[in-house]
Amino acid sequence: MDELQNYKVKKIDYAKILICVDSDDFGSSKNAFNYACSLAKHYGAELGIVSVLETGDLNVFQSLDPSILKERREEIKRLLETYGQKAKEYGMSDDDIHLMVTEGNPGHVITENVIPQYGPDLVVIGVDKNRRDHDNIGSQGSRIVNLSPVSVSVIR
Fold first, then answer.
1. In this structure, are residues 118 and 150 in contact, taking their beta carbons and an 8 Å threshold?
2. Cα 109 to Cα 72, 76, 88, distances in angstroms
3. How far apart are CA 80 and CA 69, in angstroms?
4. 33 and 21 in contact (C-beta within 8 Å)?
5. For residues 29 and 127, what is the distance between their CA atoms, to the nearest angstrom?
6. Is 127 helix (H, G, I), strand (E, B) or coil?
7. At 153, which helix (H) or strand (E)?
């Protein structure tokens, strides 16, 4: 009780926010993107927007075909450019928006590569608001929540 009595609330500021967008599921990313943009604009923070080409979703023939991989990378790049444009339209500076396309297992790639390299203060992930099963946030979201070295906001 003494510890709480002597505690003083400290303001939290964010300098870098990372939003993880699912290239296959706009529904789960939309509210999270709104939240991340709102926070970034409010704090004058940089906004990193990342999407992962999930190589595990490709069959063996697709993963060996360079043209299919190139096409999928380009799709994700265009998607992120659209997200970046939406952030600019919302009022964010072009210099404060960073687009990142990576490949692999999203939970691992984001926690092991993207977060250490980008160095966000906060990671934002989205969850499908209609998903109500026992694994509400999904395996990749759960991995990010459990393994991230920084705070994670899960937005429904």
1. no
2. 17, 16, 26
3. 17
4. yes
5. 7
6. coil
7. strand 151-155
pTM, two decimals, is: 0.88
- What is the reported pLDDT for 35? 97
Could you read off the pLDDT of 11-50 as tens digits, one per residue?
999 999 999 998 877 878 899 999 999 999 999 999 999 9
H-only helix segments in the chain: 2-6, 26-43, 60-64, 66-90, 106-109, 115-118, 138-147
Q: What pLDDT sits at residue 28?
A: 80
So what's the pLDDT on residue 48?
98
| Local structure of residue 73 (DSSP, 8 states) | H
Tokens of 155: 């937005």
What is the spatial distance between Cα 138 and Cα 49, in angstroms, rounded to a whole number?
A: 20
Q: Give the residue with greater pLDDT, 61 vs 50.
A: 50
**How much is the average pLDDT of 60-65?**
56
From the CB of residue 101, how many other CB atoms can be counted at a distance below 10 Å? 18
Q: How many CB atoms lie within 10 A of CB 11?
A: 4
Query: Which helix or strand (DSSP H or E) is residue 123 part of?
Result: strand 122-126
